[in-house]
Amino acid sequence: MMVNFKNKAIGLMVIIAVGLVTSTKAQIKPTIWKFTATDKVGDYTPAIQGAPSVATNGAFTGIAFNGVNDGLIIPASPINGWSRFTIQVLFKPDGDGPKEPRFIHFEDADKNRGTLEVRLTPKRQWYLDAHLKNGKLNKAVTLIDSTQLQPADRWYWVAMVYDGKKMSSYVNGVKQLESPMDFQPMNGGQIAIGMRLNKVAWFKGMVSEARFYPEALAPDQLLSTGK
Question: Does the keyword section mention Cell membrane (predicted)?
């Protein structure tokens, strides 16, 4: 019996290559911020607005914001200099909060900015608003669809993914929308949690965790609470 060593070698090389790609994806390490204290987020000391507090709701612990004057400003942006990125946030929007709150807002001195927002309905439902703006070009993209409703008062993982050419938004790993986008890498910057950086559009609810990846994650790599 003759053994085709050439075909076996090619097959082995394919397996190794696939394994290397899978391993590389698995080894993408995010910067993780767990919101378990108001005076320390990651390696930073935030500026505290109002009186946000640590609380536990269901399976998750996070910082609760009152939707009136609670917020945090963190003097750094983990995505600084990144040409591609994924931001995932574990949060719970309250159904009786302001109608158009921002729960994440990052911006630099060049006016490059992004926000993760919700839009609340009278029936205690919400839909996602994901926004990116290129400050140099003064061009922005907003991903929003009022038909993609979620019940409020529950925990969700939401994601903003930028692959260098387009931005996509997700709720619990399910794609909401996507659009072409030319976004400048951030030049320093800071992040507001629970509000806009200019202290408006206050968020009522809780934020438990944020993860920042220097890559555009695939949908099957995104987190979900299973709701």
Answer: no
**Closest residue by Cα to residue 62 from 93, 31, 26, 105:** 93
Decide: pTM greater than 0.90: no
CATH for 33-221?
A: 2.60.120.200
Summarised one tens digit per residue, pLDDT across range 185-223 is: 999 999 999 999 999 999 999 999 999 999 999 999 999
Question: What are the structural domain ranges in the chain?
Answer: 33-221
Give dist(CA 109, CA 112) in Å, integer.
7
Q: What is d(CA 194, CA 8) in angstroms, rounded to the nearest whole number? A: 56
Give the list of residues 6+ apart from residue 196 with CB closer than 8 angstroms, or none: 102, 105, 115
